[in-house]
Amino acid sequence: MSKMKLYHYVHCPFCIRVRLCLSLLGFDYISIVLPYDDEVTPVQLSGVKMLPIAEIDGKYVNESLDIIKLIDKNNILSWGNYEENKKEVNSLLKEIGDVVHPLAMPYWIYTPEFDNTSRSYFQTKKEKKRGDFNLLVKNKDLYIAELQIKLNSLEKFLSPYFLSSDLGLIDVMIYSHLIGLNVVPSFQFPLFIYNYMRNIEELSSFDYHVDFWQTNTPFYQTIRDGK
Fold it and tell me: Model-level pTM greater than 0.70?
């Protein structure tokens, strides 16, 4: 079996899901961070401009949960808990994403993942849906206040993980939607969320930032070693 390749963006919550699971499950893989304005590569690989894309034994898969299901053959991530609570979890993630994206996007574009060309491409595309980034930044405190309310409602579900004593897929999904907030100035997670996310990182040995700095090829390709 050849080593899996993962084509992804660093900031993308759906890409982070897969990276986190690969780290948690101890998979070796080749990490390929695509510039956001690269429309050709993902279309050539899977027919659409959508990441993540996993190349596994010559086949390409580009839905995050489909990729995770392929690598989690022993159900380490407790898929049953997700299936039982799918409607509520997806609704929760949408509510969180509706605040996280306008709050974090104007700051994501100034991380090392972007250059001037991909930054302009991303901003132009996202402003069509989210509105002017300058206005989003101006309203930052309003988004933070709204997000804090949503995060506080999470506490009753964590024991210490989502309706479980063990880390599972739902926790992976929640973490992946929240970790990108680290770039937002003056934002602080509630203490229980902070501890929840640090526990996930400790159990998985996951490093959100590692792929920012790997720029030795045009696709910023690196070889990641599993545990």
Answer: yes
